[in-house]
Amino acid sequence: MKNGVIWQDIDGNDIQAHGGCIIKHGDTYYWYGEHKGADNCPGTTRVDVIGVSCYSSKNLRDWKYEGLALESNKDDPESPLYYKKVLERPKVIYNAKNNNFVLWAHADSADYVFGGIAVAVSDTPTGPFKFLYAKQPNKQDSRDMTIYQDIDGTAYLVHSKDWNKTMNISRLNDDYTETDGFYVSVLIDQEREAPALFYKDGMYYMVSSGCTGWLPNQALFARCEHMLGKWKLIDNPCRGEKMDTTFDGQSTYIFEVDGEFYLMLDHWHPNDLKTSGYSILKIDILEGNNLRVNWADEWKGI
Ligand code: GAL
Description:
This protein is an all-beta fold and 302 residues long. The chain has one domain (18-294): Glycosyl hydrolase domain, family 43 (Tachylectin-2, Chain A, 5 Propeller), CATH 2.115.10.20. It contains no helices and 21 strands. The strands form 5 sheets. A 5-stranded mixed β-sheet has the order 17-21-20-19-18, with no helix packed on it. Strands 1-2-3-4 form a 4-stranded antiparallel β-sheet, with no helix packed on it. The chain starts with 17 loop residues before the first strand and ends in an 8-residue tail after the last strand. Beta-D-galactopyranose (GAL) binds at residues 19, 88-89, 144, 193-194, 213-214, 250.
């Protein structure tokens, strides 16, 4: 699969799973993302919400379309899932206590003023997920976000707040369906979005983008020895040509395979979002807990 362009599933159709995440359950990987498979609304950089798509694969290369895990609502303008609103960056996490899957996504009004999250649950990874609610977590605005499960099993919503000025790490309840009221604000006034996290050997890492909408900018990584500690921005992890625009991409998720970590990027095409591309790039952890992401022309899977 050529990095930077849109990929195809095993039926030859474009993979519509933007702003997504990849999780493993059993021996299968599941890729969830924004289904943007329609033309942009004329004269805009938006596609009406179709829903959250789900793909499955055993090797991270041959992807089977499993359908919409969560579908938009076409009839009720009051619904948070109404197709004229915004549903972005879906992230799914497995809850071992309840043996179910919980989907979180950035839910917003068409003008991005609402700034909240939507939560849905399913007993199976492919769904359909049952929509629970949408709101502002801890009564704070929430835009770009991810869900991160800590090594002790505690899960967190990590989200840009204060109009993307600051990042909140908001703890979830043990069902993973609600924030439990406890949160810390990190990277205060650093204006980061598109957070993607991982942990390795006593250190937490967060790769994020700056705030330039669909246009690419420089990624930075932050790190901290404690999930809820004082995170610090360190450096651009990317090297080589286009390193200052994250290879013309934007972070969306980091997943692990056999002790190695991989960064998923979106390559947005604002004027024709359905053609936006993907990359998966290996993350190297260097001496001194520095991250390095080199461009690779191809993602071969495993
Ligand atoms: C980006 C964000 C995307 C989308 C876009 C809309 O900054 O990362 O998920 O919200 O803005 O302009």
